[in-house]
Amino acid sequence: MAKRNAGEIKKFVRERYASIARRQSASCCPPQSSEAASCCTPSAQETSPAQRLYSKEELDALSVNITSMGCGNPVALAELRPGEVVLDLGSGGGLDCFLAAQRVGPQGKVIGLDMTLEMIQLARANARKLSMDNVEFRLGEMEHMPIESGSVDVVISNCVINLSPDKDAVFQEVFRVLKPGGRLCVSDIVTHGELPPQIREDLEQWAGCVAGALDEKVYLDKIRAAGFEKARVDWVSHLVCGEEEAGCGIEAGLGDRIASVTVKAFKPS
Amino acid sequence: MKKDLMEILACPLCKGPLQLNAEEEDEKEVVKGSLYCASCSVSYPIEDTIPNLLPPEVRNQDREVA
């Protein structure tokens, strides 16, 4: 981290996402829900990132209105199997956890980790409404995961790792908690080329998933440095966070340098 | 917190096992209590069924803010 210290960034991000949880709507991205929110304008509904990222079947299967701030659909690419243990980093309102829980079934388990109490409370309320028994949410940091080593089959995450000021620690922790042969399948924001320094220093831009984003090559190199093999980008989109929407955190003209990717990597067996 | 997910839990600092101390339970889960790490001598609270496993200095920082 150049000038901002890690504690300052985390505190800002936590407070920002706590306030989002309280409002149950996103600032980084427009509100996404499995039901069309009545407060949305018709155009916002038509271009909802939830509808671009998730299939109608996936959203229809969840009967409650769940806010998501994702930039991809890691569950769709994770090839989850019944009985697997899944860990979601930055679980937010729980949408990806619930989609994963349906795929791993009653013999499987899904753990959502989030550093914001308000998000955990929101996710738990959603889990209760959905009567999902194989999902559990924990308040904790992804740089210091409260998870036993070698206990998880798949780590997923959706537009969250960019928010961490210490991504090396995050990938090392992911590697530690995975079982041998386990896999990482995460959607995140990466950059293609340099961003202006004033963007990098802006806490608003950090909370908006831009300032903390790494170059795609650096991102993959950090994953490999943690011990992973076969790290690759499985999906890429330049249409991230509804960049045509106001308040997205992405300055005009930077759209071609910011991409949403879904990355896969494997812990050696 | 559901008891059957206890096995996957670890101390966020030393990654060692945690000891569950349940003060209040319903049919499904622990409502109130704590998780204790003997090697770090740190206790992590469970409040409203949510285990708070943030590192202690982060938890205290939040308390100052609130």
Overview of the structural elements:
The complex is a heterodimer of chains A (about 270) and B (about 70). Chain A has one domain: Rossmann fold (3-Layer(aba) Sandwich). Chain A is globular, with a radius of gyration of 17 Å. Chain A contains eleven helices and eight strands. Chain A has about 270 residues and is an alpha/beta fold. About 10% of the residues of chain A have low confidence. The termini of chain B are far apart. Chain B is globular. Chain B has one domain. Classes of the chains: A alpha/beta (about 270), B alpha+beta (about 70). Chains A and B meet through α1, α7 and β3 of A and β4 and α1 of B.
Topology:
The complex is a heterodimer of chains A (269) and B (66).
Chain A: H1 6-23, H2 42-46, H3 49-53, H4 56-61, H5 74-77, E1 85-89, H6 95-104, E2 109-114, H7 117-130, E3 135-139, E4 152-158, H8 167-177, E5 178-191, H9 197-200, H10 203-207, E6 214-215, H11 216-225, E7 229-237, E8 258-266
Parallel strand pairs in A: 1-2, 1-4, 2-3, 4-5, 5-6
Antiparallel strand pairs in A: 5-8, 7-8
Helix pairs in contact in A: 1-7
Chain B: E1 19-25, E2 30-37, E3 42-47, E4 50-51, H1 56-65
Antiparallel strand pairs in B: 1-2, 2-3, 3-4
So what's the CATH class of chain A? Answer: Alpha Beta
Q: What is the total number of structural domains of chain B?
A: 1
Compute the number of helices of chain B: 1
What multimeric state do the chains show?
A: heterodimer
Give the CA-based shape of chain A: globular
Q: CATH H-level name of chain A... which superfamily?
A: Vaccinia Virus protein VP39
Main pleated sheet of chain B? 4 strands, antiparallel
Which CATH-level-2 architecture of chain A? 3-Layer(aba) Sandwich
Q: What is the number of independent domains of chain A? A: 1
Sheet of most strands of chain A = 8 strands, mixed
Give the overall pLDDT of chain A as a whole number: 83
Task: Tell me the CATH topology of chain A.
Answer: Rossmann fold
- The N- to C-terminal Cα distance of chain A equals 33 Å
Got a strand count of chain A? 8
Q: Class by helix and strand content of chain B?
A: alpha+beta
Structural class of chain A: alpha/beta
- Helix proportion of chain A: 25-40%
